[in-house]
Amino acid sequence: MAAAVAKHQDITVKNQFFGLIQKAYYSPTGSPLLALQYDYSTENGNRIKQVLSAQSSQLAGAVADAGLVAKAPMGPFRVEVCLSADRQFAAVQPFGYSDFEYRPLADVRFFKGHEAELIAQLFT
Questions:
Q1: Cα torsion for 52, 26, 6, 111, to the nearest 10°?
Q2: How far is C-alpha 7 from the geometric centre of its chain's CA atoms?
Q3: With pLDDT > 70 as the criterion, what percentage of the chain qualifies?
Q4: Contact 120/83 with Cβ under 8 angstroms?
Q5: Does the N terminus or the C terminus of the chain have fewer Cβ atoms within 10 A?
């Protein structure tokens, strides 16, 4: 997922500490990106998948319907999230556990502005 986020037109990656450290920023606001990873049970993972498959016009309702989605210490469903500190950008990719590894269930989905704020409610 990192490669897809780094290629996004609104993301700037800066090298620091002699090029040994890279930090990503949401360019329109200058806000740093936070990389997060959460595991979920099958039931809660399906709730997350429903939100991620919702169209933009239905996103607010999908987030409200999902409600509080409890994270698990380990589970068959994983979500990787890049979220700007100001919650104006989010990139999300779901994974499912199969054959002893997590495999992507969908492409990375990007959210900006109000949509990113809605998605951030699920992960913070």
A1: 10
A2: 15
A3: 98
A4: yes
A5: C
The secondary element (H helix, E strand) that includes residue 124 is: none
DSSP state of 122: H
DSSP calls for 6-41: HHSTTEEEEEETTTTEEEEEETTTTEEEEEEEEEE-
**Per-residue pLDDT tens over the stretch 36-68:** 999 999 999 999 999 999 999 999 999 988 877
Q: How many residues does the chain have?
A: 124
Contact 23, 13 (CB under 8 A): yes
- The two tokens of residue 2 are 């990192």
Supply 116's token pair.
């990113």
